[in-house]
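Dear colleague,

Thank you for sharing your sequence with our group. We've completed the structure prediction you requested, and as agreed, I am returning the results in plain text so they can be pasted directly into your records. Please verify that the sequence below matches your submission; if there's any discrepancy, let me know and we will rerun it promptly.
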Amino acid sequence: MFVKKLVEKASKKQHSGGIGGLRAEDVSPRLAFHYGVPADAALLAYDPLLHVLAVATRNGQIKLLGRDNTQALLQSPSPIPSKFMQFADGQGVLLSVNTQNQIEVWDIDTKRLCYLHPFEKQITAFTVLQKSFYIYAGDSFGNVSLFKLDLGQRCLVDLPYCIPFAESYGSTANGGNGVDVAFVSPQPLAESNRLLIIFRDGVMTLWDIKASRVVFVSGRTTQQQSHQEEKNVTSSCWACSKGSKVAIGYDSGDIYLWAIPDIFSAENSSSSSNPNLPLQRLNLGYKLDKVPIISLRWVPSDGKSGRLYINGFSEHAYLYQVLILNEESESRIVKMVLPITEACQGMEFVTGLSDPNKQRQTVLVLLLKSGQICLYDDSEIERYLLQSQSRSPPTLPSHSFVKQPYGDSGINVAKFYTSDRTATANEDYFSTLASKYPWLLSMKDKGQISASLSNIHKTRNLYITGHMDGTISFWDASCPLLLQIFMIKQQHEDNTSSRARITSLQFDMSSSILISGDQGGTVRVITFKKDSSDNILSILQGKQGDNYDARSIKLKGAVTSTSMISNSKHFAVGTEKGIVSVIKVDDATILYQKQLECRVSGGIASLQFELYSHNGYDKDLLIVGMEDSSICILEEETGKLLNANPVQTNRPTRALLLQTLELSPNEAPGSDNHDTALRESLLLLCTEDAIRLFSLSHAIQVFVFPVISEVLFLCECCCSYGAFLCAGNEEDN
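Please find the predicted structure tokens below.
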């Protein structure tokens, strides 16, 4: 679509200064709206005050999900993934650290990147101190740097305060070499004064910020005892509300609970136990398969106990468990295994983003390895653990997945139609549509949400999708939140369901006829019954199956392209075998077929009917684009080949799009040869490596086909494409 629109706009501006008069915004494709969870999701963050969930991807995108189905997509200038992400709670600011160790400051209201702070070392730990908005960054040399978030300027300010490795780790600092900081977090109840630093080798230091000195050191024996296997810290979290206990997970699958002196304890003492020995080792099955503990989260419950959420996975195994931890005593372990079907990349606890009537409901959000998001009601997990301590049999907590609202089958082909481009938007109708939409993170079974057919007269845009399972869906696209109107499940003649992938769609709004082709070679002609309504989309009203008639025909090879013109009595179909079939609309019988040769194996890539006028002579043509970029021109009524030597590129290259361009008839004639050529109908050929314009007259009349214009690409083009028809009522996707 982008190439076609560029050529159209450029040709319309010839009289006012040529292509140089084209503005950048005229040909600047940009994303207007994105619904759901983007592909390659890899990281989560949550603002509990603004109730905004952030989902970062591996290509630099960050999706924001808020209340009332509010959504936004942040796009970094460089496609660099994030490795840390955290909100400044309640301030509308999101901080992200990318893999190039740049700290990004995002304004979520304006959806823009406000500040990019480069960091010279590799950032290995990152945390935001809420309320004061100081930021601690640990690096690969064992140092901890301090920043201040300037909320007014939306930027970071370097502070002179730094915690050097030599002072925080101690004189036995690994022969003088730095050790990665794996975890840095303010101590509960002493956030502004104490900072816990955990190094990759398991050594942990409690640092007094105001006094700039070490208060407590522990964990040295985990690495220094020669009989123990070497293990590295991979995750950690506080495991009590007063900051006297910390849970640490290791790449060996070990999970230790360590005692830390809280603010009420005497300095430099944690308890009567040996500070270099853990309070407790949790044997939960991770160590057996050496499954690294990727993340840990602790949630308080009744004041005396809490729940520890443990996520571990490796290339060959994964396990997600929840257990009850008692703060005062070491009772038997009560645990449960969440029956997830794949490894979990991250987790967050969110409130107020699910059902509007359940504002206090806490949902456990799990980001799975495939990018899917799985939801658990946290109260059901707590109930299961409590029932496990009694004799009553526990009930496994239910879960649901965040799904796109476009059915269970992937979309393979789509078309966009509009009944009136000049009609003013009905904001009330948009609001009504949005109110019917399910909350994205709802625990309810969302199913398929349908638009009300009683309001079909308000529908301005229609979106038709062909799916991998053979279904065809119709959507109200009056606003970005698409609502399904109805769905056609295609059937064979014996009334059995057809699950062949839909490969091509054509819809003529004036005659209310839909043409579909599938991978099995079946072409269906679906004619909708009209009524007296002025709105052309009123054909979609009525009971499903009763408002249309369907006929079908079986062709040889998968359907690759279809084409029809408004109110025509026939249409064209191309297949992977290189066969063009012209079929009657009324009875779905073949008018004629034409076998076309391809320089390499391949079929028909594009078909288009065209009325060709030259020297007062009119001719109805069928222009055929082959997958090897050859262009053949047939007589529409008979199928006679009009160009014995097809238009061809110098070497075979896969065609993506073939489209005729009609220039404005009001354009003043030019005096040079270039303007004369542009006044003729042009053939736009888009291939993987170039965009070419041919003269339609030369393609029919001569054996040499001059290229009017050609743009070569240094890299391969994207395989998806679209075309915008000059009639102004159809777009391909």
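Summary note from our side: Residues 19 and 135 are 50 Å apart (CA to CA).

Kind regards,
the structure core
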